[in-house]
Specification:
Layout: H1 2-17, H2 20-53, H3 59-69, H4 74-85, H5 100-136, H6 141-151, H7 153-168, H8 172-178, H9 188-198, H10 201-233, H11 241-244
Helix pairs in contact: 1-10, 2-5, 2-6, 2-7, 3-5, 4-5, 4-8, 5-6, 5-7, 5-8, 7-10, 9-10
Amino acid sequence: MNTFAQSAVAAWQLLVSGDPVLLAIVGRSLAVSASACALACGLGLLLGAWLGVARFRGRAALLTVLNTLLALPSVVVGLVIYLLLSRSGPLGFLGWLFSFKAMVLAQTVLVLPVVTALTRQTIEDAERAHGEQLRSLGAGPLVRALLLVWDERYALLTVLIAAFGRAVSEVGAVMVVGGNIDGFTRVMTTAIALETSKGDLPLALALGIVLLGVVLVLNLAIAAVRGWRERVDGGGGEGSGLAVWRRPEVRP
């Protein structure tokens, strides 16, 4: 307990003083995770929305594969990305191994199934509730997918939180492809693992506090946005994409 108390005090001092090593690691970690989430969400939202409204042969098998990828081990992703980016790999000419770009790629691969699966479930539920109405107005699958994404935009904010949480807490894949190089590829999770093994508990604890703080702030922000939306819309969803869309009139 005494060791924990001393480490906590030292960690607080690092946070208050704005330790440059601590700030550099935090900034790099947030940059990697934000970049990966931007890429994964851009593709995952579109793919998930399409899967939510589309019906085709083999869809059940595809969804089974997608749900399986939700439990994809991060070290396996790291190994695959490592083999692809190594000198003898098909992407070795890029020279991305042990770099910022390699970590972004690994986190994107990990986050993409999460965004796609959660978006698909949200849009599919909305399709059951409003799909018949939209089809009666002449909306095709693509239009329905886009309208439902807009209508469920506040619910999909939780998908972004889940994606960022998955990315920022990742350690296995970024350790493999990034190498945990001091000043270049060391992020919060890999630094916590390294500093704990070295016995530098204050820095590890300070990074853990920052990591928890980031997730807490994001969740509070999402709760505030959703609460504001409920107050403005009165809980009825007025002004949504479904309320304002109409089939174009055909004039003779």
